[in-house]
From TrEMBL:
Keyword Chloroplast attached: no
One Gene Ontology MF term: zinc ion binding
Organism encoding this protein: Eudyptes sclateri (Erect-crested penguin)
Name of the protein: Pleckstrin homology domain-containing family F member 2
Span list, region Disordered: 220-249
Membrane topology field: Peripheral membrane protein
Database matches in PROSITE patterns: PH_DOMAIN, ZF_FYVE
Summary of the function given for this chain in its UniProt record: May play a role in early endosome fusion upstream of RAB5, hence regulating receptor trafficking and fluid-phase transport. Enhances cellular sensitivity to TNF-induced apoptosis.
Ranges of residues in domain FYVE-type: 152-212
Record domain PH: where: 35-131
Biological processes per GO annotation: endosome organization; endosome to lysosome transport; protein transport
Location in the cell: Early endosome membrane; Endoplasmic reticulum
Amino acid sequence: MVDRLANSEANTRRISIVENCFGAAGQPLTIPGRVLIGEGVLTKLCRKKPKARQFFLFNDILVYGNIVIQKKKYNKQHIIPLENVTIDSIQDEGDLRNGWLIKTPTKSFAVYAATATEKSEWMNHINKCVSDLLSKSGKTPSNEHAAVWVPDSEATVCMRCQKAKFTPVNRRHHCRKCGFVVCGPCSEKRFLLPSQSSKPVRICDFCYDLLSTGEMTACQPTRSDSYSQSPKSSLNDVSDDDDDEDSSD
């Protein structure tokens, strides 16, 4: 079906509409063979609070942006190659229901659908697109994923030293390797994580010690793959809507 739609006028028109909704600030989306599979509003769990984002699923990329005018205008366009994506379901907890993780080497975050049916459809379509891409390329699924950031609201004290209380003066920071919320003294070091940034990024002392000794996988939090609390993205040097209040930390 995707191959049949690839060169159709209807598909070209639909993609053109999406491009126009992002305006001049968005990247061109029309390329040979690209098909718009589906679209919809999902709740993306950001650093400060959940926010509605418009998502577009293509056969090779996932695109999302801020909603400026519903179905007419979006900004802050983000493009994620599906070839690097893996997804994991999240258990329902409180008001956060019908969610799953979208994980890539550079960025990982949680999204939530309005219904269980919508969640199932999104996950099935994403998995099918990823499977088809990997089958055509002969590549294997990515086994490296950026950590999902723990939201600010989940930590009143540093998650490493368990002592420093966060205040307007003693600010929260995030380790780019494990995603924990940590205090300044516990995250003064930098380390180069090539999949996330071309420059050394902030990491906590615990992860720094493990990375320095070559035990890179040991500093990943055990709950990252079965996250039952509110997560957050872990991209450092790309401006994201998640970090609109404090992009440097």
